[in-house]
Specification:
This protein is an alpha+beta fold. The protein has eight helices and 15 strands. The strands form six sheets. It has a four-stranded mixed sheet. The chain has a three-stranded mixed sheet with strand order 10-11-12, with no helix packed on it. The relative contact order is 0.14.
Length: 426
């Protein structure tokens, strides 16, 4: 059997002679041309099966997402692929979309007819179904929360995407609800949908519409990236035990140098020798027919069943929530009644205090009014008592006479002089 028949990627092949030329590594992002519908587009509910194997793929490794090299790149998460030597890891990488406004729907492994089939990813105007697998970095199992197109510019959600704002300026922040992502890595490591232990999900009407709408296969850079990963022995699960040394790259095909991220260490994952090896062609065709038999009616029935199961699971929680709400309402009502009673009591006490103060003030005014005539009548008597006291002559104080100065006594000498004078006159 030819290798091309055994190892079918379900994507456009690129010749070895032009692989290097297909790896686009521009310095700055330039928007691709205006979109024209491709001549061949997937228009089925599920994307085509690339390969089918018997054993489920290993858990997703845990790794840090590198920052985008420039604006305009969109993150494509890493995944386990299948080759002649078993499972090998295709590193997550930043890719330029083939068209402005297009988003990436990751490929995924799904349980079909007792085996595991890989459904190829694609580019389209909206994100389609990828099995409910939580790849992290915005791919939480449904839709994409790592960024969005605003006119012709791709905006990055820094809440779930590792962005270097010195290089990328189109950034916003929006927390993603109900996703199990820590530090841009998937914590729920299940790498496949359906089957024992797989993710439980069925396509929504919106995801079916995305799969049925015109869309494009992986770009040539992605094709070359996958081929390089298949040729690297270090990326085989049998070699790295589920922890690839090249878990993510900054650009497609850039497996060395800055921007290469290794998976975080962990316990080794032991798998059978044939794990991940493609099934024979006859079995592959059988699985493809089984997948094609899942027509829209089957998908609708699966959706209704999933909705019914979800409702059955959530009903007890809703009943408990209703009971809790009723109890909370009763507590709130009792508290409100207590507050109102306390407010009413305080208002009554204040009114009583005000009334008592007013009564006391009125009594004081009455006492003052009664006391006023007595005060006025007693005023003349007090005046009469005061006036006689004022009419009484004041006691005169004897005037103190100044002692007269004593006349000086005649000096004897002068008397003698006068006697002599009189004597001479005689």
């Amino acid at each position: 059997m030819e290798a091309s028949k055994v190892f079918r990627l379900g994507i456009a092949a690129a010749s070895v002679t032009v692989i290097t030329a297909c790896v686009v590594q521009p310095v700055a992002y330039s928007p691709p041309p205006v979109y024209a519908p491709p001549p061949v587009a997937y228009r089925t509910a599920y994307t085509p099966i690339a390969v089918a194997v018997q054993d489920p793929p290993p858990p997703l490794p845990v790794y840090e997402q590198p920052a985008p090299p420039a604006e305009g790149y969109i993150w494509t998460p890493g995944y386990w692929n299948s080759g002649p030597d078993g499972y090998f890891w295709v590193p997550g990488t930043w890719v330029q979309p083939p068209q402005v406004g297009f988003l990436w729907t990751p490929g995924y492994w799904g349980f079909v007819s007792g085996a595991y089939a890989f459904h190829t990813g694609y580019w389209g105007g909206s994100v389609g179904f990828y099995g409910g697998v939580n790849y992290g970095a915005g791919y939480g199992g449904t839709g994409f929360g790592g960024g969005r197109w605003v006119n012709n510019s791709f905006q990055y959600n820094s809440a779930v995407t590792n962005v270097n704002t010195t290089i990328v300026h189109n950034v916003y922040r929006e927390n993603i609800v109900n996703t199990t992502v820590i530090n841009n890595t998937a914590i729920n490591n299940v790498s496949y949908s359906g089957g024992p232990g797989g993710a439980r999900a069925v396509p929504t009407p919106e995801e079916l519409a995305a799969a049925s709408a015109p869309h494009l296969p992986p770009t040539q850079a992605q094709v070359a990236h996958t081929q390089q990963a298949a040729a690297n022995p270090a990326l085989l699960a049998s070699r790295n035990q589920g922890h690839p040394p090249i878990a993510a790259t900054v650009k497609p095909g850039a497996f060395t140098g800055p921007g290469v991220v290794a998976a975080k260490p962990g316990p080794p994952i032991h798998m059978s020798a044939d794990a991940g090896k493609p099934l024979p062609a006859v079995r592959q065709a059988e699985i493809e027919r089984a997948q094609a038999a899942e027509n829209p009616a089957t998908v609708k029935a699966a959706q209704e069943k999933a909705a019914h199961e979800k409702a059955a699971e959530t009903k007890p929680a809703q009943e408990i929530s209703t009971a809790d709400k009723a109890a909370a309402d009763r507590v709130a009502a009792a508290k409100l009644a207590q507050e109102r009673a306390a407010q009413q009591k305080a208002a009554q006490e204040k009114a009583a205090e005000d009334k008592s103060a007013q009564s006391h003030a009125a009594e004081q005014r009455v006492v003052q009014q009664k006391a006023a005539p007595t005060k006025i009548a007693s005023a003349p008597a007090k005046v009469a008592q005061v006036q006689p006291q004022r009419a009484q002559p004041q006691k005169t104080q004897p005037q103190k006479t100044q002692p007269q100065k004593a006349q000086p006594k005649p000096q004897p000498a002068k008397a003698n002089e006068k006697s002599e004078h009189d004597h001479k006159a005689n």
